[in-house]
Design a protein that fits this description.
The complex is a heterotrimer. Chain A is built from eight helices and 14 strands. Chain A is of the alpha+beta class. In chain A, about 30% of the residues lie in helices and about 25% in strands. By secondary structure, chain B is of the alpha/beta class. Chain B has two domains: about 325 residues, Rossmann fold; about 55 residues, no CATH class. In chain B, helix 11 links the parallel strand 8 and strand 9. The relative contact order of chain B is 0.14. Helices cover about 35% and strands about 35% of the residues of chain C. Chain C has a five-stranded antiparallel sheet with strand order 3-2-1-4-5, with no helix packed on it. The longest helix of chain C is centred in the last third of the chain and has 34 residues. Classes of the chains: A alpha+beta, B alpha/beta, C alpha+beta. Chain C: InterPro entries: Hydgase_assmbl_chp_CS, Hydrogenase_HupF/HypC.
């Protein structure tokens, strides 16, 4: 049965264990909620892909996978579906690959509202369209109440790396310039407030965004871009530490160059957190040779996700593996990897 | 004025640092023969490292990081008791995030949570109170932790619970006070301190007079300081000027927040709700007379010790030996630097803290490790 | 210890329980104003004031005049240092010319 919009009608308003049973209820759920929106080619158990880009000699296939859990599943500026598409697209993009296809697997908790699933799936389609990728295959499982938190999503992405492209952290050399594409920590601070247990409120919106177009623009403008990392869990500090370690260089950033919104600073002051470790979902740090820095900035600023692009520091020869920050009035401190999770503190 | 950025102005910092240089020269202090200044408060320790102030001040000034981190000085036995309370049926155990990772003898609260205890991080005791209102069938226990800054907030929450007649809200009181450990440090024969930077937020509650004994009886200067980098540098300058001039008085750099006589409402709430314990155990410092607070008899209904028969309220006195090889007490009294401890970065890291000062990010050893290149130094040595 | 930060009291949210909304750089949190409500004051008198916030309590009203005086002293030092540096530069320039 379909309604006037052509969407299949489901009798239930919530997911039940029957929707995971392998029978007609499951098929109805999959067709009504997922395949009608994602529009995969046919209903085989596999996606059959053609990738002309791969036929070029020297081209490589890039593949990545990531699981997404977030509380709450919907938050200002996005939802778990947006995270699941952007996160995997970004993992491909920062490695220099052009993202092409995604798979999406859903673990759904019994009792989850079907309307919520529909909203999540719609955002995923939207984001996939924006990023120029197709969601070609997927899976659903239903688990009992309490065995998951509404919905968990795993996405796997494939993309193609053009011949000769080699972006990796180990490429970074002393003198290279570090650039971020916008204000930091919005996502982390937004989620902290959205969880509600600290009773904070603000107008912050998650920075969640796909960065494929931004990376394409940078790669077109800067032939020698060395490496990029998305600053997700562990924030900018973790991304920089990984790069410093892999490249055997020091990284020095300037505190007064870090783009931070007042509300992010406020959240950090209240809870005693360090914005360098707050998660981002649409931010990356990029290393380019000094003579390509201007071109990189211009290319980044030419796309909406890079409007706030700015230089934050540079790589130095020594001490290898160490990230330091010049503080506002010339002091220096080491920015180490995070130990465990950042917990709010009072003292 | 927003009272934050104004006190982080690099231009003013330059002037302060130049003045500090001059006074250090006038005193004749050098790297070999430095002036030892203790910042009592862990918040100050944190700020010193966060802004790299230790690297900006001249070699003739050496910071000794004091005992003012309530998480660091919490004995392991008290963490064990928290876990015991939290693991009871029908209990929601609430705590500030700081205490989650502190190791007990068996586990931390974070591990107890993973094992199934209902432990929740809160920003305020008011949030614990709200949980009690919303969960009348559950017992909500708040872990009361901290110095005089935090003590009134717990007292006011207990008073509020009493007004509302809540019967499912208690506090596991581990509040401690600043002046007694300072006295204990000053009485230590190995003490090398020349002056103190005083805890600004403790002082906004208790005022500046509780420190009079430091100047009057021990002849040491103390300057109550704010927490922005300029506040700290100015306070260091004021301590140095006192030393140069041979003076020892209590001065207040943080007058915008700290009234001479403290906060009357907070002091009244403290007086109403708590009384001094005869003594209290500090991790790294041992038992210190009259350094801890307990809830008065009239609020026994809100006292987790009375209600659950645990902690200092219990018949059995528990004591847990400090781990072997831990040199926290020597670091705290300024006899050695964190890096001088044989366990630093080896048997004792922020991931697996052995001693008190590695436990919280405000502890001197953790700050050294995290901001001061401890990890790098240890790795290089390997 | 004792993380405390300045926030502006922007609204009284519960007059009987002495609760108010504080704003820290655009982040809002409900706090108790019990500690800063002086004798003879009503909660509304606090609107617009900056308070030092600690664990959900306004613990002190920040004294604007004292803050200004501290800053003035700091600025004085900064300017004095600039003058000294300018003089040193000048002396150096003279030496180089000679």
């Amino acid at each position: 049965m379909k309604d006037v919009t052509g969407q299949k009608v489901l009798r239930d308003s919530r997911v039940t264990l029957a929707h995971g049973g392998g029978g007609k209820a499951m098929r109805d759920l999959i067709e009504s909620v997922f395949t009608d929106v994602f529009e995969p080619d046919g209903m085989e158990d596999q996606a059959r892909l053609t990738a002309e880009a791969l036929a070029v000699p020297g081209a490589r296939l890039a593949m990545t996978t990531d699981s997404f859990v977030v509380t709450p599943v919907e938050f200002p500026g996005g939802d778990i579906g947006k995270l699941a598409v952007c996160g995997t697209v970004n993992d491909l993009a920062v490695g220099g690959a052009t993202p092409l296809y995604l798979s999406a697997a859903f673990i759904i908790e019994e009792g989850t509202e079907i309307a919520l699933l529909r909203r999540i799936v719609a955002t995923m389609r939207d984001e996939a369209d924006k990023a120029g990728v197709r969601i070609v295959t997927g899976d659903t499982k239903v688990v009992g109440r309490g065995s998951a938190d509404q919905v968990f999503i795993t996405t796997t992405g494939v993309g193609v790396i053009a011949p000769g492209v080699e972006l990796k952290a180990g490429n970074v050399r002393p003198g290279d310039v570090a650039i971020v594409n916008g204000v930091l920590g919005d996502h982390g601070a937004c989620i902290l407030a959205a969880r509600g247990d600290m009773a904070l409120s603000s107008d912050l919106v998650s920075d969640c965004a796909g960065l494929g177009h931004l990376m394409a623009a940078v790669q077109a403008a800067c032939p020698n871009v060395r490496a990029a990392r998305d600053c997700t869990r562990g924030g900018l500090a973790s991304a920089l530490n990984e790069i410093a370690e892999a490249a055997g260089v020091a990284v020095e950033i300037e505190e007064d160059a870090l783009p931070l919104r007042a509300e992010v600073k406020g959240t950090c002051e209240i809870l005693g957190l360090d914005p360098l470790y707050l998660a981002n979902e649409g931010r990356l740090v990029l290393f380019v040779p000094e003579d390509e820095a201007e071109a990189a900035l211009a290319a980044m600023r030419s796309v909406p996700e890079g409007e706030g692009a700015t230089v934050i520091g540079r790589a130095k020869p020594a001490p290898a593996g160490q990230v330091t920050m010049r503080t506002l009035f010339g002091g220096a401190r080491i920015v180490d990897m995070l130990v465990g999770e950042q917990l709010p503190r009072i003292c | 004025m927003r009272y934050v950025e104004e006190f982080r102005d690099p231009k003013a910092a330059k002037g302060l640092l130049a003045a500090i240089d001059r006074v250090v020269d006038e005193i004749g202090a050098t790297a070999e023969n430095p002036v030892y200044i203790m910042e009592i408060c862990g918040g100050h320790t944190h700020a010193i490292f966060r802004y790299g102030l230790d690297k900006l001040t001249p070699a003739g000034v050496e910071f000794i990081h004091g005992p003012g981190c309530p998480v660091c000085v919490l004995p392991m036995a008290r963490v064990d008791e928290c876990v015991e309370l939290a693991e009871q049926e029908d209990v929601i155990f609430t705590t500030f995030g700081d205490a989650m990772r502190v190791p007990g003898t068996k586990k931390s609260l974070l591990q107890a949570k993973a094992d199934g205890a209902d432990i929740r991080m809160v920003y305020s005791p008011l949030d614990a109170l709200e949980l009690a209102r919303r969960n009348p069938e559950r017992e909500v226990i708040f872990f009361g932790l901290g110095f005089e800054t935090t003590t009134p907030s717990t007292a006011l929450s207990i008073q509020q619970a009493a007004r509302e007649g809540l019967t499912n809200f208690t506090v596991f009181c581990n509040h401690i006070t600043v002046p007694p450990p300072i006295k204990a440090l000053l009485d230590d024969p190995h003490m090398v301190l020349d002056g103190f930077v005083g805890p600004g937020h403790v002082s906004m509650v208790i005022g500046t007079h509780p420190y009079d004994f430091i100047a009057d009886d021990y002849g040491k200067p103390i300057v109550v300081a704010g927490f922005e980098p300029l506040d700290l540098l100015q306070s260091v300058l004021m301590v140095l000027e006192q030393i140069r001039d041979g003076r020892a008085v209590v001065e207040n750099q943080y007058a915008r927040v700290v009234p001479e006589h403290g906060n009357p409402v907070s002091l009244a709430a403290i007086e109403d709700v708590y009384e001094k314990r005869p003594s209290f155990a500090w991790r790294g410092l041992g038992e210190i007379d009259e350094s801890g607070l307990r809830i008065r008899e009239k609020y026994a209904a809100f006292d987790a010790e009375a209600k659950f028969g645990i902690g200092y309220g219990a018949e059995v006195e528990r004591s847990v030996e400090e781990p072997e090889g831990c040199a926290c007490s020597q670091v705290m009294t300024g006899r050695i630097k964190p890096t001088g401890c044989p366990q630093f970065g080896l048997g004792c890291t922020p991931e697996m803290p052995l001693g008190a000062l590695m436990v919280s990010s405000e502890g001197a050893c953790a700050a050294y490790y995290q901001y001061g290149g401890g990890r790098a130094a240890v790795e290089a040595a390997e | 210890m004792c993380l405390g930060i300045p926030g502006q009291i922007v609204e009284i949210t519960d007059e009987s329980r002495l609760m108010a909304m504080a704003d820290v750089s655009g982040v809002r949190r409900e706090v108790s104003i019990a500690p800063v409500l002086g004798a003879g004051m009503t909660p509304g008198d606090l609107i617009g004031e900056y308070a030092l916030i600690h664990v959900g309590f306004a613990m002190a009203i920040i004294d604007e005049q004292e803050a200004a005086e501290t800053l003035k002293a700091l600025e004085g030092l900064g300017e004095a240092q600039e003058t000294l540096e300018a003089m040193a530069e000048g002396a150096k320039a003279l030496e180089e010319r000679a």
